[in-house]
Amino acid sequence: MKDFASEIDLIVVIPLVLQLLGLALVVLLDPYIGKKQRRLLLLNAALIASLIAENIVSDWFVVHGDVPPWRTLFAVYAYAVRPLALLLICCIAAPNRKHTPFWILLGANALLNATALFSHICFWIEDNRYHRGPLGYSCHIVSAIILLYLLYLTFTAQPKRDRFQLIVPIINVALVVAGALMDTFIAHTQSGITFLSVAMVSSALFYYIWLHLKFVHDHEKALEAESRIRIMMSQIQPHFLYNTLSSIQALCRIDPEKAFDVTEKFGTYLRSNIDSLDRPDLIPFTKELEHTRVYSEIEMIRFPNVRVDYDVTDAGFSVPALTVQPLVENAIRYGVRIRKEGIVTVSSKRAGNCHEIVISDNGKGFDTSLLKTADGTHIGVRNVRERIEKMCGGTLTVESAVGEGTTVTIRIPLT
User: What HEC string does 73-132 produce?
Assistant: First the structure.
């Protein structure tokens, strides 16, 4: 019987070990997984492998004699590690969360099961038989709570339109639950490997495949967003240069000497800052202010009734190139230029957990519902908003009243 049991052990154990080794190999080679998630997946595979080893050693104890202290110690380890393996999946699903309450719950479960070494409150082993105490289901309860938390994380991270893809993690949770129930109410086979261990290996593989598909999808969306940003930048840059040169051209007729000074200043500006105009990533806010000041000074020379004021108390952060300048340009060209005294104010400050940039004017204002149209007057605002959202996770809001003026507020999260 022992030889037959050993043969069954190999038939069951070898495929499980090969699956875990294969999982570790593809995780190491997968270019779409972040470093933190890669480490967590490898650690999870190692924990599952240790649970399989625990199953085999515990079965050996049962077959070869009564050694309760060692068998108790291995059981304590198993009950502590099973929910840990599940919590690691939660950390993989939401790597930026701390999950503090669940780590505390995990520690309490481990301490509770460790009491089996000196009491019967959780479980004990006597005459080589397992006996469950009054708190013997603590591991099951903690694991169930973590599984529900995992489902919550998975649902909240998945867009509503892609909810059909949740079938894979739901099946994984069902497999783990089924394995735990079978271990509790059905006698183990001769292999010594628990149903839960088999379920956790299968779930780890399926969950990795699901994560891989999600990572690839996110990567493709990021590439698409980057492509759109590059297209927008290619549209904005000539627009900025054309408008500046148009202003200089107008000055050539009304004040050639000023036009000469402005042209020289603009040439110096281009030599020192053209690299920033060609960058699709973030630039220091001070650079963006420099772009804005050059443009607004040219416009103020052309339109003496326009004034641009600055109130900058927070400048230690980065923004997408050509973020503030197009908004100041809109304020001048479509807002304050018609006023006897048109004022545009650019301010920045720390507001709560955000850097806040405000561009306000006392211009003619407009109906903000027009921002949803394809009107070229407002396409610059939509482009800036999209780049703020995509590149730094910020927001852009517009408040305007016809005849009173417009206020544009940009909020960029602290990093």
Answer: HHHHHHHHHHHHHHHHHHHHHCCCCCCHHHHHHHHHHHHHHHHHHCCCCCEEEECCEEEE
Q: pLDDT tens digit string along 277-316?
A: 555 578 899 988 887 888 788 778 778 899 999 999 999 8
pLDDT at residue 2 tops 50: no
- pTM over cut 0.85: no
pLDDT exceeds cutoff 60 at 57: yes
pLDDT: which is higher, 116 or 250? 116
CB crowding 303-342: b at 16 or more within 10 Å, else e: beebebeeeeeeeebbbbbbbbbbbbbbbbbbbbbebeeb
Model confidence pLDDT, tens digit, residues 365-403: 888 777 766 455 566 788 788 888 888 889 999 998 888
CA angle 375, 295, 318 (to 5 degrees): 85
Whether 235 contacts 246, CB under 8 Å? no
Domain residue ranges of the chain, discontinuous segments joined by +: 2-221, 255-413
407 alpha-carbon distance from chain centroid: 30
Strand 318-320 vs strand 354-361: parallel, antiparallel, or unpaired?
Answer: unpaired
Instruction: Output phi, psi for 159, to 5 deg.
Output: -60, 150
371/342: higher pLDDT: 342
pLDDT at 8 over 50: no
* Terminal alpha carbon distance of the chain: 63
Contacts of 339 (CB under 8 A, 6+ apart): 305, 362, 363, 364
Integer Cα distance of 265 and 278 in angstroms: 20
CATH pick for 255-413 out of 3.30.1130.10, 3.30.565.10, 3.60.110.10, 3.40.50.720: 3.30.565.10
Task: Say yes or no: do domains 2-221 and 255-413 share a fold.
Answer: no
**Phi, psi (deg, nearest 5) at residue 65:** 140, 175
- 2-221 carries CATH number 1.20.1070: yes
> How far is Cα 163 from Cα 186, in angstroms, rounded to an integer?
34
Which residues are 361's β-sheet partners? 344, 406
d(CA 209, CA 202): 11
**In contact, 85 and 44? CB cutoff 8 Å:** yes
Percentages helix, strand, coil for the chain, rounded to the nearest 5? 65, 15, 20
- The CA-atom distances, in angstroms, between 244 and each of 163, 290, 361 are 48, 14, 20
C-beta of residue 144 within 8 angstroms of C-beta of residue 178 = no
